[in-house]
Design brief:
Blueprint lengths: L2 E9 L3 H12 L4 E4 L8 H4 L3 E2 L9 H11 L2 H5 L6 E9 L3 H17 L5 E3 L1 H7 L10 E10 L1 H14 L3 E3 L4 E7 L2 E6 L2 E10 L5 H7 L8 E12 L7 E4 L5 E4 L4 E5 L3 E5 L4 E2 L3 H14 L1 H4 L3 E6 L2 E3 L6 E4 L5 E5 L9 H12 L19
Parallel strand pairs: 1-2, 1-10, 2-7, 4-12, 10-20
Antiparallel strand pairs: 3-6, 4-6, 5-6, 8-9, 9-10, 11-14, 11-15, 11-17, 11-18, 13-14, 15-16, 19-20
Helix pairs in contact: 1-7, 1-11, 3-11
């Protein structure tokens, strides 16, 4: 199978790749997206689905706010798939004085930087909003309008919207090599040769290998396996997504009553053989912390646990921007917190490809920041 003269080839069918293909196709660009497995197969389809501005690295906040503008108008972009986004509120509570000090310091730092989306609230407010909470807190940070989504549905929504706007999507299409000749990129795959003037590398944990094949930057990207647990159905008691200051936790309750527990705990992964492990010991610590917040969780049977394969950067900030080689762009390394950013990243990469100025600065994510 061969496809000649595509203007843009996007490599990777996660949320960043599908959103990039969508925004490019919507603007009339000729786009082909190639995915080595299936759309949303890896990190973008198996994550906790948190749609949060809360708790982000301060360098990520402008991009997160820009992405939230798209989330809040998602139906206009991907239609009925947007119904799988559930805005509510996101809350990180302090369960000890150390967490309280951390939260108050963050609130002050964000105010000083001009950000007002995170608000510090005391325990009385938290208990009113979450009457089933099993412990008193030391206060917490709240963001109204953050929430959660069904990850694979949102990714599929962007993929379908991209196709409706003329993009081609080809699955089970592993990239063997990426080389440049006479101003054209030649992408050799299991389904033949693709040629394009521009390539956007959104290949997740595999992206550094793609860049190396293209003789681009050498990226210090590592593969790990973020993990999640889902319980049996229980009575509805949690109307928010929750975390804990100075601890690793993401906790929500689905509309059917199941609790989903995760939030950064990770195990081993080998992206070369598509293998990700599950560490029951690490997961148990998250379950115990969740059960401390809500005793009902301690009575809920775990029915499934799983992991995905994600690419992590040393500073846990993504790579977004132009590569060293002309016509090559990168968007990867989201270190298990890229789902909410996805629509904003797709828009920004489309801007870069088309020579336009993204709505926020991408300086913090520049691909050459690890080059001495």
């Amino acid at each position: 199978m061969s496809s000649q003269g595509n203007k843009v080839v996007v490599i990777g069918g996660g949320i960043q790749g599908c959103a990039t293909a969508f925004f490019l196709a919507k603007r009339g660009q000729k786009v082909t997206l190639i995915e080595k497995d299936r759309i949303g197969r890896h990190a973008s389809g198996v994550n906790a689905g948190g749609v949060r501005r809360l708790g982000r690295n301060i360098l990520e906040i402008p991009l997160s706010l820009a992405a939230m503008d798209i989330w809040q108008n998602l139906y206009q972009e991907i239609g009925e798939y947007a119904e799988d986004f559930h805005p509510c509120f996101y809350l990180k509570v302090a369960v000890d004085e150390a967490g309280r000090e951390l939260g108050l310091m963050r609130a002050a730092n964000l105010r000083e930087a001009g950000f007002t989306h995170e608000v510090w609230v005391e325990d009385d407010v938290i208990q009113t909003r979450l009457p089933h909470l099993s412990i008193p807190t030391h206060g917490g940070l709240i963001v109204e309008g953050d929430g959660w989504a069904t990850p694979w549905r949102i990714v599929q929504g962007f993929a379908n919207a991209a196709k409706k706007n003329g993009a081609k999507i080809i699955e089970d299409c592993y990239v063997n090599s990426l080389t440049q000749s006479q101003g054209l990129w030649q992408i050799q795959t299991l389904k033949g040769l693709f040629e394009a003037g521009t390539v956007v590398n959104c290949a997740g944990a595999w992206a550094a290998d793609i860049a190396r094949s293209a003789d681009d930057y050498i990226f210090p990207l590592e593969s790990f396996a973020p993990m999640l647990v889902v319980t049996e159905r229980r009575p509805k008691i949690l109307p928010a997504v929750m975390g804990v200051l100075s601890h690793t936790l993401s906790l929500k309750q689905l509309e059917n009553g199941q609790f989903v527990i995760g939030g950064g705990v990770r195990s081993k992964a080998n992206h070369l053989i598509n293998q990700s492990d599950v560490s029951l010991q690490k997961l148990s610590s998250s379950i115990k912390l969740a059960a401390k917040l809500f005793s009902e969780i301690g009575n809920a049977q775990v029915i499934r646990c799983w992991s995905g394969i994600e690419g992590y950067m040393p500073d846990e900030l993504p790579i977004i921007g132009r590569g060293r080689r002309n016509g090559l762009f990168h968007g990867f390394g989201f270190s298990a917190h890229g789902f909410q950013l996805g629509p904003g990243v797709g828009e920004a990469l489309a801007d870069l490809v088309m020579g336009q100025q993204p709505r926020v600065s991408l300086e913090a994510f520049r691909p050459d920041r690890f080059i001495n």
